[in-house]
Amino acid sequence: MKPRLIPDARRVALRAYSMWANYLGLACLIFPEILFIGWHIDTNPRLWWGLGLGLLLASTIGRLIDQRGGRLKSSGAVMIAALLLMGMSQAPAPSPPDPAPPATVAAPGPVTLAEFEAIGVPLIAKWEGKRNAAYRDLVGVWTICYGHTRSARPGMRLSDAQCLDLLRAEVVEYREGLHRYFSQTTRRARLTPARDAAYVSLAYNVGISGAGKSTAVRRLNAGDIAGGCEALTWWNKAGGRVVRGLARRRAEESALCLRGLAA
Question: What CATH number does the domain located at 113-128+161-258 have?
Fold first, then answer.
């Protein structure tokens, strides 16, 4: 039997509490992606998850309310505007630059490659995992060692030492690419070896461009070091949902980022 719409489908679609809750819930999924794709603003996913859950509950409750009076009427547009404004209010605005240090205080020098590698390479190796024999990943790309694809081929097998050399070379490339997004002051005075490793670990996971244009980097360049470390934790989703493994990785990166920062 062919399904048919209910007789008052148009009124329900325009005025029902549950329908508007569904519309707003959909907006919670789409709007943050539009912000990031269009303006490279990565808002706090916890806000959108909380709003989406609340709207799901509202939709369920709305099904139990007598809606024959159509009390929503034109207020739906107001509700959508309020939701979007709330989300935009959570988009981090650039922080004011931090004051220059007094002339009598020497700013720390830039992190050396050896200092970075001592923390960054083991950190990334831990989270990437290693397979010494070449294999096809989920999308069919030949991969080996710590996610290396550039020279991987069928039948290839590398030792632990060779895998580590590949990882070290790639991590250095990612670091060089990400550092182009850092201001001179950030590279000279705001990066510690642990903080450098934390940001490069993010870049290795999500890509240089994604990390470089993120709120985490913008905040760090503006002098808001703690805010930048917090923003690292926002990159905990895959396919639109929070992934526990990513959440744990971001938590460790954020802790490294905050290491040595005065409370």
Answer: 1.10.530.40
Instruction: For the chain, 263 residues long, give each residue's pLDDT as a single digit of tens.
Output: 566 777 777 776 776 767 777 777 777 767 776 766 665 566 666 666 677 777 777 777 766 665 555 444 444 444 554 554 555 444 444 433 444 343 333 345 789 999 999 999 999 999 998 999 999 987 789 999 998 999 999 999 999 999 999 999 999 999 999 999 999 999 999 999 999 999 999 999 999 999 999 999 999 999 999 999 999 999 998 777 888 899 999 999 999 999 988 75
DSSP string, the chain: ------TTHHHHHHH-HHHHHHHHHHHHHHHHHHHHHHH-----HHHHHHHHHHHHHHHHHHTTS--TT-TTTTHHHHHHHHHHHHHHHTSPPPPPPPPPPPTTSPPPPPPPHHHHHHHHHHHHHHHH--EEEEEE-TTS-EEEETTB-SS--TT-B--HHHHHHHHHHHHHHHHHHHHTTS-HHIIIII--HHHHHHHHHHHHHH-HHHHHTSHHHHHHHTT-HHHHHHHHTT--EETTEE-HHHHHHHHHHHHHHHTT---
Residue span(s) of the chain under CATH 1.10.530.40 come to 113-128+161-258
Question: What pTM was estimated for this model as a whole?
Answer: 0.63
User: Would you name the residues annotated as active-site residues?
Assistant: 128, 137
